[in-house]
Amino acid sequence: MSQFSRKQVRPNVLKICILLGLQYFATGFGNRIITFKEPMPNKVLKGYGIGRERVPNEGSCRVNCYLNPDCVSINMGPLIEGELTCELNAATSGNEYFSRLVYQKDHTYLEIEQNPCGSSPCLNGGTCQAGFTRTGFRCQCSIGSFGKQCETMSPNFTAFLSAKSCSHLKELKPGAESGTYIIDPDGYGPQLPFNVTCNMTDKNGVGVTVISHDSENRTLVDGCDPAGCYSRDIHYTEASLPQLASLTYVSSHCEQFIKYECFHSRLIFLAVYPFGWWVSRDSKNMTYWGGASPDSKECACGRNNSCVKRRRCNCDQNDAQWREDSGLLTDKSTLPVRELRFGDVDSFDDHDEKGYHTLGKFKCYGPGEEAKNFQSLSFFPKVFKLKPNDLQKQRLNNRVGVTVISHDSETRTLVDGYDSPGSYSRDIHYTGASLSQLASLTKTSSHCEQSIKYECYHSRLFKNQQEPFGWWVSRNKSNITH
Fold first, then answer.
1. What are the tens digits of pLDDT across the range 344-390?
2. Are 129 and 117 in contact (CB under 8 A)?
3. List the disulfide bonds (predicted).
4. For residue 43, how many other CB atoms are within 10 A of its CB?
């Protein structure tokens, strides 16, 4: 073995793992250790994809997940012509009370054992990667933070970061030129600053924030028939969807160009199950196209009755000619586009049905009303997906401004069939926010409260302080007996 270098040995190790389809991966590839649970047939995880490719077998897909430090689960399609689709995910299915999995025939879902990243242990926007160190995870800290869990922010880091957008930067420095800048839309809020391109000449020189992504090129859609059978996740450059949502809050206008070129392929938004759609940042299926009004179920040509044969979209003509539907999406409450879905791209009457999609860069400009209304707030909790109207409604208990976070266990729930202390358990999942994010909210608030009630019939809470029958668990996993 000594006559070979490590680089020469590694490919052989990889081949062995691919052939055997091993459940367990360890230090043969580095310092990551992960174990897969048993496969779950006819199930997939949607909305958390970080990569997709065709591979020869299940073992190859497992190895791909191991080699991607952000991967904690995989979706696998059926074996077709010697290959299967391997999709890597950055999340797992949930727990015994909550599941993100959906049914998909002939597909298989696998996830790693004990995903420590599910509790979001990395702070200040850090990325959690499972299978590393003695704790079972490591944190890749974002710019300006450090520590094992990215818990420490550099005291000088945010001193120069005052621009919330490129338009705001233009106001602060009218002579600023086009180029790459760091912006911080939520100020001292939980979202970290991120890099953007500022176009200081577009839109009459107002200062346009431009975000690139991995799906800007004209891309073929082909080879499947059911509605939405083709999917394309959009990954934005150096910015997460919560960060981009915070950009929309401080901008008066946002837009994204979208185009579908079709050959015997339909959109048909009026149908109960349209063949194509785009998915908003909040994972809602949007059944209208660029240039049309939100919820109109039409394309741009439908607004002025210029579609082929007065249909709502040109592609709905569904004939053997290349046609196109395109335009700008401008509803900033739903942008940017998270995913593209298409169908009706197989074959019909010896015609090859197909299409091409093109999605433009995400652009925002102008000062948003939210920035004006809430610019005095030192903490800007838009990461929790509170809409501006919700903030205004909650704005006020004696004009102090109350932040309200929902969760999945607010309804009255039966507790029955258990006898030993603490044998019934219920995990609480908060809407749009992790426990570490909520902990940061408590640090910037003078008062926090949460109502709790237990109705009992021949059921005790506290036999004594040493042996309670019931308790609640704090965010730091301490059992609280009061």
1. 998 877 778 999 999 999 999 998 754 444 333 333 333 333 333 33
2. yes
3. 122-139, 141-150
4. 18
